[in-house]
Amino acid sequence: MTDDYLHTWIGSSTAERITVAGRDLAADVMGSLTLTELAFLLVTHRVPTAGERRIVDAVLVSLADHGITPSSLAARLTYTGAPEAIQGAVAAGLLGAGSVFLGPAGDTAMFLAAALRDAAPAPPEDPAAALLAVAETAVSDLLAAGQRVPGLGHPVHRNEDPRTLRLYALAREEGLLGAHLRLLRMVADVHEERTGRHLPINGAGAGGAALADVGFPPSSVRGVVLIARTAGLVAHLVEEAERPIGMPLWLEAERRASAAAPEPR
Amino acid sequence: MTDDYLHTWIGSSTAERITVAGRDLAADVMGSLTLTELAFLLVTHRVPTAGERRIVDAVLVSLADHGITPSSLAARLTYTGAPEAIQGAVAAGLLGAGSVFLGPAGDTAMFLAAALRDAAPAPPEDPAAALLAVAETAVSDLLAAGQRVPGLGHPVHRNEDPRTLRLYALAREEGLLGAHLRLLRMVADVHEERTGRHLPINGAGAGGAALADVGFPPSSVRGVVLIARTAGLVAHLVEEAERPIGMPLWLEAERRASAAAPEPR
Amino acid sequence: MTDDYLHTWIGSSTAERITVAGRDLAADVMGSLTLTELAFLLVTHRVPTAGERRIVDAVLVSLADHGITPSSLAARLTYTGAPEAIQGAVAAGLLGAGSVFLGPAGDTAMFLAAALRDAAPAPPEDPAAALLAVAETAVSDLLAAGQRVPGLGHPVHRNEDPRTLRLYALAREEGLLGAHLRLLRMVADVHEERTGRHLPINGAGAGGAALADVGFPPSSVRGVVLIARTAGLVAHLVEEAERPIGMPLWLEAERRASAAAPEPR
Amino acid sequence: MTDDYLHTWIGSSTAERITVAGRDLAADVMGSLTLTELAFLLVTHRVPTAGERRIVDAVLVSLADHGITPSSLAARLTYTGAPEAIQGAVAAGLLGAGSVFLGPAGDTAMFLAAALRDAAPAPPEDPAAALLAVAETAVSDLLAAGQRVPGLGHPVHRNEDPRTLRLYALAREEGLLGAHLRLLRMVADVHEERTGRHLPINGAGAGGAALADVGFPPSSVRGVVLIARTAGLVAHLVEEAERPIGMPLWLEAERRASAAAPEPR
Fold first, then answer.
1. Does the beta-carbon distance from A91 to C89 stay under 8 Å?
2. D158 contact partners, CB below 8 Å, separation of at least 6
3. Most CB atoms within 10 A, among A250, B70, C15, D189?
4. B97-131 in b/e burial notation, b at 16+ Cβ within 10 A?
5. H or E stretch including D19?
6. Cα–Cα distance for residue pair B163/B161, rounded to 1 Å
7. What are the tens digits of pLDDT across the range B24-73?
8. What is the spatial distance between Cα D265 and Cα A22, in angstroms, rounded to a whole number?
9. Residues in C touching D20 (Cβ below 8 Å)
10. Whole-angstrom Cα distance, residue C48 to residue C171?
């Protein structure tokens, strides 16, 4: 190891060998690890247990783009103009994964981790009460600042987000219901108590908490969920090549917009 | 099902339920399918067998960006300027997955599939001889047109690409050594015979052939491999946030370029 | 000038001075050159004449995204999800400028330049006849290969593209009606004669030819027109921030798609 | 005008006519407006005066990417992998225009506009004293919050940014030295007084203030400067196609990183 800044733990190669995460790619990674396990290894520097892997996959499959979303529409419309460069259409779809969509997974993980970090150490005799105190402080601070609570609320799943219930059940089943998921539920309860409004824990928020619980650094979550989104976008584009939505959507939009346009002066 | 063009098989949601690929996401996908299996399902419309899943994962982990590549450098340099928008840095990295890097996986799948499609049906008594004839025609056509053979040659792995040997071994082990992988090997042999040059089958080419063999439409391969690349890019960016390469690389490049610059006239 | 590959003619800076295209940026570029003139200078290595500048601006303003297009819709939908990263929304819009939309400007310039380059030198006594021969060969070759003629045809402006007529008039007015624009018109005429179908010269094709005539390398045209597109996209996004289309478009699309979706099995 | 949300002021087209900003594109825009003037018109809904146009062009040419920057390197490295999709390389370059580079132009405009908006109306007898009070409050607030002052400081131009001096001179020359530029200078002075550290007004900050002074909505500035950046990136990519930096940079980086990599265990 020299002191050149130009090096990475992730991988390297010579004429004969490719090394990934300190392992021989051909001998010890191919055939042994799933893509999900490799992603876990590359980010956290260890291989997940079977239970952790199951939780991570559950989160990722829950956040692949299902259905018509702004991201999948943007990807399809980009494909309409540049079908020869599918990487551009996937990139366009990913670019919409910001503060409004998908980004909240990472924002929730960061919010929960910060609340846990700032809290006084829990008295060993009553960890649940300690966690509740953390939730109360965190919600109070956000409400006082007039900010939204990350991970709560969904425009379509107004009562319960079906992904959330399932993720909590899986985490319990695998013995991986950790501090982030527990705190998030308390946060939701405290929020409802304080405001009188029921906002369900959304799938992105629950997913971000679950990823933090199994060991992903909270700051990595915004990136990690993009892997899932890429899978969804690729599927949308394969379908778009066979049965286009982009072109008829444009033609309809253009027709409606031109009907609405005033004559030039 | 109405006749509106605005619909997709991939997924949909109501207030209570999210449907993905015709299944209930919470009940039948989360906890049951890995991300790789979901990607397979969304693109091919069926769940892979265990063997197929193992091959797909082997291809994907072999094509995640290992080490310093133009893609990972572009992603890191983008992160340098916009660390608040990690989706943009991932997108920048994906945009370099074109005709030169990673794209050859899809190009190889398309090339092999076209050669197989154009060939006369194989006489049942000697499928190997029939496949050899396909390889000979395909290589002849490319050489006559002055074009490169997709899937052959690598700037670093000049003798053998370690991923290729492993992938062929895995495919044989799983009983999934299909027409695309077989044809690709014959193509490499015929090419060497005709030109006297040894060009190994590269990992992208072998990966593309393997994906076609397990059932991915050849036209989908260029997209599918982007899922793997996203995983690698995310790992690079998580590392970049902790130990930056982008900023020192820029400062070194700027210093060297300014030393080389003439004075303004 | 060292022999380090890391240098560029475009610009450099020291603590006191910024040099662009060999000029002092503050003293000799700011206040003196328009953005269009700088782009011309950076690509062609000379400042345009007033007439050339007028043609380039006419091309650029004609190719800024007017109205609702797949590009502007993709940009707006990306903004819906990530309003904090406007560069991502602009990038998403640009990614659709490929082989179908806007790319044809560059493709036309390349096609015309190749045809002119391949042609035998024109006999000085009759340049028009020589150019006609070039057009006939070029059209014949494309028709024989079953390919479309770049620069012809438009889904909306089926008879005449209003930008084309104006651009030819401006080029004549400025004495800049060069070989590329002349050849393109002959190509359109020959194509109609041979096929019996009237396909107007589209604005992208005429723009590409005009840029080549004033001195842009044909291979640069695909890039140069992106400057115009960026201007249009930025305007769309400024409007989107005030009066959103992306969110209601998504909600309408989601509603229609979910109405069309079958129940999960 | 219907009540459909799908319409835009920017433009529309029919078979015979293209309308941009309420004008006939062919008759009243092409040949009459420069790209800069069109961008001004599309964003502010009026044509700039000659003086305003000169200031806007001065800002834009000052912010086109000069020299080797993280953005231009990312664009060049992307081109290395996908030279057939130049729009992707330009997009990759734009994606780095975030909070660290170029974004500060918009951030400065927003900061100055907010400070002006929050201030009590200036007593007519002494506008300079009133502006100074605004600067003092604004700097105090930022320092108290431990935040940086937008628009101040530059890693290379540590004493003075040459673009800033020139821009102030041009604005004065054109009679367009408005509240934003004036306030920014006072902010820099107050900051130096309070902290004892000299941080020059950087080119991005001055550019953002100047664009706000001539009439761009502060929230539009982050987008508007991307037009300039696109011009610079396109020039870099035209050069890259002729004299590549991306490929040798990758090979050098790969070689250095592999030398630094440990053996796989």
1. no
2. C15, D200
3. B70
4. bbbbbbbbbbbbbbbbbebbeebeebeeeeeeebb
5. strand D18-20
6. 5
7. 999 999 999 999 999 999 999 999 999 999 999 999 999 997 789 999 99
8. 6
9. 61, 64, 66
10. 14
Q: Among all residues of chain D, which has the CA nearest to that of B87?
A: D95
D263 to chain C, closest Cα gap in Å: 30
Q: What DSSP state is assigned to residue C36?
A: H
Closest CA to B128 of B210, B201, B183: B183
Q: How far is CA C234 from CA C66, C79, C94, in A?
A: 12, 11, 11
**Orientation angle between helical segments B221-242 and A35-44, nearest 10 degrees:** 10
Report pLDDT for B1: 44
Backbone φ and ψ of B168, nearest 5° = -65, -40
Distance of CA C73 to the CA centre of its chain: 19
- What are the residues of chain A with a beta carbon less than 8 Å away from any beta carbon of chain C? 67-71, 73-75, 77-85, 88-89, 91-92, 95-103, 156, 246-247, 249-250, 253-254, 257-258, 261
Q: Of A57, A102, A97, whose CA–CA distance to A214 is shortest?
A: A57
| Cross-chain Cβ contact C265/B22 below 8 Å | yes
Contact B91 D91 (CB under 8 A): yes
Are A102 and C81 within 8 A, CB to CB? yes
Say how far apart CA C185 and CA C97 lie, in whole Å: 24
Local confidence band at C116 (pLDDT 50, 70, 90 cut-offs): very high
Q: What secondary structure, in 3-state letters, does B129-175 show?
A: HHHHHHHHHHHHHHHHCCCCCCCECCCCCCCCCHHHHHHHHHHHHCC
Residues 6+ apart with CB under 8 A from A52: A40, A174, A176, A214, A215
Q: Computed over its alpha carbons, how large is the radius of gyration of chain B?
A: 22
- Centre a 10 Å sphere on the Cβ of residue A2 and count the other Cβ atoms it contains: 11
CA distance D122 to A229: 51
Is the Cα dihedral D124, D126, D129, D135 positive or negative? Answer: positive
**What Rg, from alpha-carbon coordinates, does chain D have?**
22
Q: Answer whether B73 sits within 8 Å of D100, measured CB to CB.
A: no
Nearest C-alpha neighbor of A226 from the set B43, B87, B238, B40? B87
| pLDDT tens, residue by residue, D56-73 | 999 999 999 778 999 999
Contacts A90 to C, Cβ<8 Å: none
This complex has an ipTM of 0.95
Token readout for B218 is: 């050849």
The helix/strand/coil state of B121 is: coil
Question: At a CB cut-off of 8 Å and minimum separation 6, what does A121 contact?
Answer: none
Give, in order, the Cα–Cα distances in Å from A208 to each of A55, A225, B24, B87, D22: 11, 8, 21, 16, 47
The CA distance from B161 to B159, in Å, is: 7
The domains located in chain B, with CATH, are 103-220 (1.10.230.10)
Give the Cα-Cα-Cα angle D189, D191, D192 (nearest 5 degrees): 65
| Residue B112 backbone phi and psi in degrees, to 5 | -65, -40
pLDDT value at C1 more than 60: no
Q: Which of A94, A117, A51 is nearest to A222 (CA)?
A: A94
Q: Quick one: which of C190, C208, C214 has its CA closest to C111?
A: C208
Helices (H), chain A: 35-44, 50-63, 70-81, 86-95, 103-118, 127-144, 162-173, 179-195, 203-213, 221-242, 246-260
Q: Which of B1, B14, B17 sits opposite C262 (nearest CB)?
A: B1
pTM: predicted TM-score of the whole model, two decimal places: 0.96
Tally Cβ neighbours within 10 Å of residue D255: 12
SS3 assignment, position A47:
coil
